[in-house]
Amino acid sequence: MKIALPAENHPAENRVPLIPEHVAKLVNAGADISIESGLGKTLRITDDEYSAAGASVLADRKALFAEAEMVLRIGKPTLEEIGMLRRGCVYVSLLDPFNEKELIQTFVAKRISSISMEMIPRITRAQKMDVLSSQANLAGYVAVIIAAERLGKIFPMMMTPAGTIAPARVFVIGVGVAGLQAIATAKRLGARVEAFDTRPVVEEQVKSLGARFVKIDLGETGQTKDGYAKALTDEQLQKQREGMAKVCSVSDAVITTAQLFGRKAPLIVTEEMVRGMQKGSVIVDLAVESGGNVAGAQVDQEIDRDGVLIIGLRNLPGRVAVHASQMFSSNLYNLVEEFWDREQKTINLDFDDEIIKGCLITHQGKIVNEMISTYYQKNA
Hints:
It contains 13 helices and 19 strands. The chain has helices at about 20-30, 45-50, 60-65, 80-85, 100-110, 130-150, 175-190, 205-210, 235-250, 270-275, 320-340, 355-360, 370-380, and strands at about 1-5, 30-35, 55-60, 70, 90-95, 115, 160, 165, 170-175, 190-195, 210-215, 255, 280-285, 300-305, 310, 340, 345, 360-365, 365. It is globular.
């Protein structure tokens, strides 16, 4: 099977889909891999290193797409790039299928088998393929590092001849994968950390990291079968904001990580809450690309609101691109390896398998993912 690895064409993307280590493993399994020249330049990985791993190097991007039976990539393709693909090709990347209906319909028209890495089900067997978790882990780390750099204060307590410096207070909103890593990172830096989530079940995890769990009585809440927080009612959101406003007002740094799968991120930190914060404090909004948790947050901007710095930088994992690429590459490799037929030297899309059912969006001219199909019908 001919597998193509095109270079990412978004200027803010520094990650690569496969590193030479995993290229070599797929080549050993019988795959014929071609990369676009310059694929690894953002990580200082040369074409020669990919060649040494067994890959062919092509300078012609159009030819790379045209010859591919499978494409492995980080970002979604342009409509023009889909037009370059051969019919029946398997395309694997982040696709944002809930918000990219035209893209998905173009896959259907070209009879492309598209796999969305966001849709990998959260089951034990698929953990090694879970791109969202691996990248969110790094995003939580980077968010705290950015907050620490922008704050103008140190995070740890220090006792010096000039006096005692109190530890910075960090408030993490949303205790998923990113939130847990943000808590752990802020604690390692010596901050006093508090955290809130609508799911009471995460309180024990917060405490295990040495942080204080902020309790706000919202009535009945919970999580989906995949571990995501359920959407709150308007009344619950108002109660949540009132409770969090008190914590935000005494915090030096606030990290927001709340996202709803397939939906716009909820607005959590209002303009009034921002105005109630101390001058010089910072907010890092990890959900800015999906609508944002913070009023006034803008993608790729750092905005001063009455002395409070609101940071809305996209693609935080890309700021630690070496490790982000290692993890993304491992996730992609594990997906391909799980369904690789070593005798036929091709991928076997087992339609009865729970993982394939979850992440395969289009196949043979149809939308085959039930969740996406139902969503499009409801939002037609």
